[in-house]
Specification:
This protein has about 210 residues and is an alpha+beta fold. The protein has six helices and six strands; from the N terminus they run E-E-H-E-E-E-E-H-H-H-H-H. It folds into two domains: about 80 residues, Phosphoribosyl-AMP cyclohydrolase (Ubiquitin-like (UB roll), Roll), CATH 3.10.20; about 100 residues, Orthogonal Bundle (Helix Hairpins), CATH 1.10.287. It has a four-stranded mixed beta sheet with strand order 2-1-6-5. Strands 3-4 form a two-stranded antiparallel ribbon. The longest helix has 25 residues. It is elongated and about 60 Å long.
Length: about 210
């Protein structure tokens, strides 16, 4: 399916979304040339309506937006681009141009991965990694036991608190073994009857 540049004065409305976290990063516009450059370079180009000129997102800041997948809406005049950004997307230095509170397990995972790659003194993640997988397994088991006790006591607040602890330790355990949340989600999507859509998405992302 190709974009319809006959509408909206030849411009597509474009939304950038973080591929890893799902966070909406910004809205911009593309003409046909910007669209072609984006496909060619696999980084996002826009068309500035105020300057009436092409511009590569990140050309000043260095925070380029690397394309993972592109998806048109049903009318073919709006485009969703999932990207891996090199840094903050907003020109104000914020992660997103939309000033919203946003948190997902993927953001937690990115934090854990950053601590794994760039250990910080005093970091709990650094401590667990240094202690090794047996320590992480022990802590994960302890958190699971504490959830079971909280459930037995019908203590909702404690269940929520312990669930947060368990998720942290479990994600760390997964990453220590080379498994990321996206792979677990893809597996669940296949098992949930979305196997064909999953395969189609993977084919699109490999363009």
């Amino acid at each position: 399916m190709q974009p319809d540049f006959s509408k909206n004065n030849g411009l597509l409305s474009v939304i950038l979304q973080d591929y890893d976290t799902g966070q909406v990063l910004m809205n911009g516009f593309m003409n046909e040339e910007a669209y072609d450059l984006t496909i060619r370079d696999q980084v996002v180009w826009f068309y500035s309506r105020s300057r009436q000129a092409l511009w590569k997102k990140g050309e000043t800041s260095g925070n380029y937006q690397h394309v993972v997948s592109m998806c048109l809406d049903c009318d073919q005049d709006a485009l969703l681009i999932r990207v891996k950004p090199d840094g903050p997307t907003c020109h104000l230095g914020n992660v997103s141009c939309f000033d919203d509170y946003y948190f997902t397990l993927e953001i937690l995972e990115k934090t854990i991965q950053d601590r794994m790659e760039n250990p910080q003194e005093g970091s709990y993640t650094k401590y667990l990694i240094e202690q090794g997988v047996d320590k992480i397994l022990k802590k994960t088991g302890e958190e699971m036991t504490e959830i079971l006790i909280a459930v037995k006591n019908n203590d909702k607040a404690e269940i929520i608190n312990e669930a947060g602890d368990l998720l942290y330790h479990f994600i760390l355990l997964l990453n220590q073994n080379g498994v990321i949340l996206a792979e677990v989600k893809d597996n669940l999507a296949e098992r949930h009857g979305l196997k064909q859509k999953y395969k189609q998405r993977k084919e699109i992302e490999q363009w």
